[in-house]
Amino acid sequence: xxxxxxxxxxxxxxxxxxxxxxxxxxxxxxxxxxxxxxxxxxxxxxxxxxxxxxxxxxxxxxxxxxxxxxxxxxxxxxxxxxxxxxxxxxxxxxxxxxxxxxxxxxxxxxxxxxxxxxxxxxxxxxxxxxxxxxxxxxxxxxxxxxxxxxxxxxxxxxxxxxxxxxxxxxxxxxxxxxxxxxxxxxxxxxxxxxxxxxxxxxxxxxxxxxxxxxxxxxxxxxxxxxxxxxxxxxxxxxxxxxxxxxxxxxxxxxxxxxxxxxxxxxxxxxxxxxxxxxxxxxxxxxxxxxxxxxxxxxx
Length: 299
Known about the structure:
By secondary structure, this protein is an alpha+beta fold. The protein has seven helices and 18 strands. The protein has helices at about 5-10, 40-55, 105-110, 130-135, 195-210, 230-240, 265-285, and strands at about 15-20, 30-35, 60, 65-70, 75-80, 90, 95-100, 115, 135-140, 140, 145-155, 160-165, 180-190, 190, 245, 250, 260, 295. A five-stranded antiparallel sheet has the order 6-7-13-11-12. A four-stranded mixed sheet has the order 1-2-5-3. It is globular and about 50 Å long. It starts with a helix and ends with a strand.
């Protein structure tokens, strides 16, 4: 059980029974017992220590763009590394970004500094911390391609900095998925470029995304991981599931790889639709799709 008085003394921005639907791009999710909007590493370390000493569950989030929170919410403490930890600095060919900085903001800083290498990542709707956590990628590029170092809080509460090659970065995976770590910031190594060419590339990727993806509707991004040798969206579309709905959840009519919230969708709706998609695709093609979206909290 969380002591509300004690947890309130550890951070400036603490809310209780906070609806997670207000903190996820899916706009779905029940209440978190405690929600902390972290301002700095010291606050995070204090909350981590409190949770560890009192056996209180702890979840770290960013922009909430790759998660589905259960309808009954999240027990314990949620720490958001977001806007209050989103500083971006440019020094030569390197960009230092705090974990709460949006990928789009980093892209804007790179463009302003005429640095190339971040174009394919510019439209990913999440934070840098979230991008590192799952080694986010798009259009053939991944964050590991430009990542130099990451500073994070280790499981023992100490702040460490590691090189990208030490982080077990692979397709939609990093060592941080193993739990117990909190990403604080990173250094990205880019290369000099032409501002007009960088801007044109970003616009091109943005147009491709808006033309093909349901970015105007609440979702958690791509719902399923890409199965080896296939494309999830193509398998789902070829299974006749485009537009298929369960409650307020729908397989997007624009891109079958996305489950969207058409309004009032519950986590239960989304989960039932995900299972339906998995079962149908497996029956038709012998491929079991694996969700890319993280399932969090109590269903």
